[in-house]
Amino acid sequence: MYIATAAEIRNIEETTIKEYGIKELVLMENAGKVVADAVTVLLNRVVVGSNVFIAAGTGNNGGDALVAGRHLLNYGAKIKVFFVGNMEHLTQSAKVNYDILQKMKADFYYIESEHDWDKVKAALDFSDIVIDGLCGTGVNLPLRNNYKKMITCLNKSGRKIVSVDMPSGVETDKGMVDGSYAVKATTTVTLGLAKIGLFLYPGMCFVGKIIVDSIGIPGNLLEDNKIAQKLIERDLVKKIIPQRPVNVYKNTCGRVLAVAGSIGYTGAAVLCSEAALRTGAGLVTLAVGSRLYNVFAAKLTEVMVKPLPEEENGLLGEKAVKTILPREESYDTVLIGPGMGREADTLKFIRELALKVKKTLVLDADAVFAFSGHLDELKKCVHVPILTPHLGEMASLLQIKVKDLKLDLWKIVREAAAQYNCIFVLKSEKTIVACPNKKIFLTTVGNRGMATAGCGDTLAGVIAALRADKIREDKAAIAGVYLHGKAGDFAARQGMAGLIAGDIVKNIQAARKSIDDK
Q1: Residue 250's pLDDT band (boundaries 50, 70, 90)?
Q2: Does the global pTM surpass 0.85?
Q3: Sheet with 283-289, side-by-side order of all strands
Q4: Label partner for 366 (CA 20 to 30 A): which of 17, 50, 149, 302?
């Protein structure tokens, strides 16, 4: 499913009205009906006699809420509409629906003095449910004082809340909020397309259940490839990951070479290589410094272990590069980085190897850090590399602070992917895949239990295995994020607290089966 920015949805609505001749009032009518239906569901279809509190702004978002109120009034509910904002600024379409409700003798209230807040609180005390039609996609932060007060009242009411398009106070493109001043919705009915801010932290904490409705916008406008953001969902991933033919054998299922691990960080190497096998790679080789060979040979059964010659300081260097390169033709994908350490010589080795390898690269952890201050060198890679940084590593890579990265997360990552011709899999509350063509993909799976050491190493192994199976780089990254998150969700069935990376590895096979199943 495509997801839209505020500008994109405005353009879609304008095209719908101007080129298709569907009037704004028709779209508003459709939107209000969907909101009313969502309210009906939350009321367990007991609408007659129910008290509905409507918080309305003076824009079209408020107009949508007014239409919902009219339908609920007709269903037998009692409604009270509280307006926030200057009524002189009521939009034309909202005014039409306001006039209709006046003729239907609906109860209207206007916030004009401090005394009016007592009416708000009293009405909320007697309400059964709330419709939030304050701001929508047109929100400007910071919020004006009356909006903050209304949002606070709604959240303190303890009532179920249906938000129209966006929870009021959540910024459409960035998911930012003004402190705690955002409506905590039970359900968000988002119109036309889901908005990107619904899936970004902290906004995602306020949305509740998401209902997406086209509201009559022509389908070709909502499926336009020019929309640059998309959700990573099962149907998309099912098209990417191929069914295995009956005549496969290990060399046709993908061969992964993992260069990973160091003293004190052996677990990362084990996790990424085993994750690659569980994803479906036919053969995985872990290349490690010779001092660690016996450790890994004893620990790993299905993964082959290749010792690499070390330099006099005990680190990997030119000798290891010369050992790996003649053998790279035996592999389809090379994964570098998990648990390698950040000594200066190690980072130099990583960069040298990455720039000489002719296979697709997956760069994780210390391999991402190795390119901090050397970002332009990524453009020299033979194939588009896949980098899997977390927020700190991404900020370090771009030489900015994490707090500045978060302010415009997906836009910054999008531009970086295009500028440096690489694919970024940015691990955060909702992992983002950014491609050189400026396409952005946001995951729909995964959970907070996955905030644990080694989780990123498993993701790198999953992506490497999919790429080795001849799946294009960008598609391997997209499918890998979903498969990894789904495995984490399966693991979380036993509880989120205490979930470890090994649990994710154990569930990758089941996660892939869930995608393959009809």
Answers
A1: confident
A2: yes
A3: 229-232, 440-443, 432-434, 423-426, 386-388, 360-364, 333-336, 255-259, 283-289, 304-308
A4: 302
